[in-house]
From TrEMBL:
InterPro entries: Amidase, Amidase_CS, Amidase_dom, AS_sf. This is Glutamyl-tRNA(Gln) amidotransferase subunit A. Residues 47-418 form the Amidase domain. Pfam families: Amidase. It comes from Luminiphilus syltensis NOR5-1B. One of its GO terms (molecular function) is transferase activity. The keyword Amino-acid biosynthesis does not apply. Keywords: Transferase.
């Protein structure tokens, strides 16, 4: 049984039927509600919204039992308001790890979100439902959030496109805060073109967001310009260790593909592997979350309502010392300085795997902390520097599971980043590829 993408956006009634048919088996949408656009006479696109962003007329639960009885919001997150201006149909609210804190798709209140390629495997998280809904064909576009990899990891494990924009280019107003220096909203989509459309629709300055920065170029106008003359750094060292064989082999193919289209490949080892290993961004994000959720932890009744794994991760964050936090930030600044020198010195893009492995089995993922460290090991630190990166599908491994290639660019250079992602998609003949459902797949 499978659901197949078409070349046009499904109208609301077709999306509703798809959700009714598929969602009970993968649990990607926790609040299915079709909200039609204001002008029904104009063509519309359908977007699913992660349930950590406000949508007027729908509740926001943050994936938590604590807020499971919330009433409908009266206002929109900034990005949702911008999509309304594009006459978007909303498909409801997507599943997520509780309080956006975990990379498996586990949720003790709403049940786990299952990977459409193999429901015995994790989706990745925390934007689990957004990725799974796109991969299964319920929708073609969704919004997620990315702090340490929460867009890119599920995009990779579910075989869809996932963009983490430059920190500040997409406003977070009206969205849950996780880490004040690393959060960003980003698109997940069935194709690079749709991810680019969604990014162009939501990015731009917002005075209400203290991290917001001035807007840059739109990505759609240059999407088909290719990569000729572009210098691509193949990241080594820490970012190339313990990679599954099929992922490493396919990434070699992607590198050769870019080279055949005129890109210039450069071997690029990180400046300081040791600092990344010892002062991983995972540590300071743990501490940030512990502070952001401190009010819930102080209230005994609310603390007991938290999922056990999320509560454990918050407690780990509470144990991070000020010196450890400072060391992580100092390491992050060193990585950022190295990247600035790298990009200013002639490297245009970086290439690495999105995840070092394909989707693990649920039975092997009971420890959310350990599984998060494994699947998000390559996304945390680059994301924390604020640079944009995108996970683009690069086919299936020998077991029929999706693999993702990650491209990263300098701050504000989403247009070039998505051009390269589109070149990979086109070169691997993944244009408008079929969706997959419950193990039925097609390359």
């Amino acid at each position: 049984m499978s659901a197949t993408h078409t070349n046009h956006q499904q109208p609301g009634d077709a999306t509703q039927r798809a959700i009714e048919h598929i969602n009970p088996l993968i649990n990607a949408v926790i609040h299915p509600e079709i909200q039609a656009p204001g002008n029904s006479s104009k063509p519309t696109r359908t977007v699913l919204i992660k349930d950590c962003m406000h949508v007027a007329g729908m509740p926001t639960t943050y994936g938590s039992q604590i807020f499971s009885n919330n009433t409908a919001e009266t206002g929109d997150a900034t990005v949702v308001g911008r999509l309304r201006q594009h006459n978007v149909t909303f498909a409801g609210k997507a599943h997520l790890t509780e309080f956006c804190f975990g990379a498996t798709g586990q949720n003790e209140c709403y049940g786990n979100c299952k990977n459409p390629w193999d429901t015995d495997r994790i989706t990745g998280g925390s934007s689990s439902g957004s990725a799974a809904a796109v991969a299964s064909g319920m929708v073609r576009m969704a919004l997620g959030t990315d702090t340490g990899g929460s867009v890119r990891v599920p995009a990779s494990l579910c075989g869809v496109v996932g963009l983490r924009p430059t920190m500040g280019r997409v406003p977070n107003t009206g969205c849950l805060d996780v880490s004040t220096i690393s959060d960003t909203i980003g698109p997940l989509a069935a194709s690079v073109t749709e991810a680019a459309w969604l990014f162009d629709a939501i990015h731009g300055y917002d005075a209400a967001d203290p991290n917001s920065i001035a807007t840059g170029d739109a990505s759609l106008p240059t999407l088909e310009q290719g990569v000729e003359g572009i210098a691509v750094g193949r990241l080594g060292g820490y970012f190339s260790e313990n990679i599954e064989y099929d992922i490493e082999s396919r990434l070699d193919e992607v590198a050769r593909l870019l080279e055949s289209q005129g890109a210039r490949l450069i071997d690029t080892p990180p400046e300081n592997d040791t600092a990344i290993r010892e002062h991983h961004a995972f540590r300071f994000i743990l501490a940030d979350v512990a502070d952001a959720r401190s009010d819930l932890m102080r209230d005994t009744r609310l603390r007991e309502c938290l999922g056990a794994e999320v509560r454990r991760r918050i407690e780990l964050g509470q144990a991070v010392s000020g010196v450890e936090y400072a060391a992580s930030i100092r390491s992050l600044l060193g990585l950022r300085r190295w990247l600035r020198n790298l990009f200013s010195g002639g490297t245009d893009l970086l290439l690495l795997p999105t995840t070092p492995m394909t989707a693990p089995l649920w039975r092997d993922s009971a420890d959310m902390v350990e599984t998060t460290r494994k699947v998000a090991g390559l996304t945390y630190d680059l994301g924390a520097t604020g640079i944009p990166s995108v996970s683009v599908p690069m086919g299936l491994d020998r077991n029929g599971l999706p693999m993702g290639a990650m491209l990263a660019a300098s701050w504000g250079n989403e247009a070039l980043l998505l051009r390269a992602a589109r070149a990979v998609e086109r070169g691997l003949s993944l244009d408008d590829r079929p969706s997959v459902f419950a193990g039925t797949s097609a390359n």
